[in-house]
Amino acid sequence: MASPVVTSIELSSLPKLTSGKVRDLFEIGSKTLLFATTDRISAYDVIMTNGVPLKGAVLTQMSAHWFRVLTEKVPGLKTHFLTLDLPAVLSPADRDLVRGRSMQVRKLKVFPIEIIVRGYITGSAWKEYQKSGTVHGLPQPAGLQQCSPFPQPIYTPSTKAELGQHDENITPAQAARIVGERYADRIEKLALQVYEVGAAYARERGIIIADTKFEFGLDEETDEIVLIDEVLTPDSSRFWPADGYEAGREQASFDKQPLRDWLTETGLKDKNGVAMTPEIADSTSARYKDAFKRLTGKTLEEALAEL
After folding, report:
1. What is the tens place of the pLDDT at every residue in 193-204?
2. What one-character-per-residue DSSP string does the chain give?
3. What is the reported pLDDT for 45?
4. Per the CB 3.0–4.6 Å rule, which of 104, 242, 255, 283 could disulfide with 234?
């Protein structure tokens, strides 16, 4: 990689279509995109001004691993992932910039909601439950403790806000009105199935996936629902070490919760123009790489050497 921290990706060889919180999308052809992942990190929907070393490589390689695992374990699952190989059209400089942090994917119509599955009650779900006994407006059993498992994982979608805006929690019924009844039930069932398979796989490797955020697209030629974006990473999920888990309290974390905690403690939550301390950036990188090794059985460096 050209730099230990990459917060912006501009390619001379391909046109950029869009830039999100973490990823920049480039058009390879009419049906194919280059999904390039920076080291940018966001918390509370605000992007930090500096990045996390090697984060983009972790997210890319971990997502590729999950796409392979999940298509083996979830019958009929379709994903947008094509290959980690770089497009032949890239210039040498462009290849150096995105090697290890990009994948080729299918271009699909994206469903305009965030698909959240929760296996454990924490974060905003715990706060709502304490007030009303509900999560995303759905009644929950009495007596749940902080970070305890739900009796069954639950589907709790949210809106997909514009960059810099906040997603809003909605009910499954509201989500169905957005995506259409034709697809709503299929999305919910598939999200729960993918979460349960992924959570079981991770638990065997010492990680509890407390909750996660998926995105799905539609293959309009086949009318199939397709798993897209990143999947089951420390950016899109809450990862807890299984060996230290105990209900009734906050958990240690492999994800970006320590960054959220730091922002809250320093009064910087929801503020723009914030730079992480080097300690926060480096410790976040170390946690992400630790999770990667536990889930894939190899270090990030070993995975990158195979490319």
Report:
1. 999 999 999 999
2. ---S-------SSS-EEEE-SSEEEEEEETTEEEEEE-S--EETTEE-SS--TTHHHHHHHHHHHHHHHHHHHSTT--BSEEESSPPTT--HHHHHHHTTSEEEEE--EEPSEEEEEEEE--HHHHHHHHHHSEETTEE--TTPPTTPEEEEEEE--EE-PPTTSPP-B--HHHHHHHH-HHHHHHHHHHHHHHHHHHHHHHHTTTEEEEEEEEEEEEETTTTEEEEES--S-TTTEEEEEGGG--TTS----SSSHHHHHHHHHTT-TT-SS----HHHHHHHHHHHHHHHHHHHSS-HHHHHHT-
3. 85
4. 255
Q: Does the pLDDT at position 29 exceed 90?
A: yes
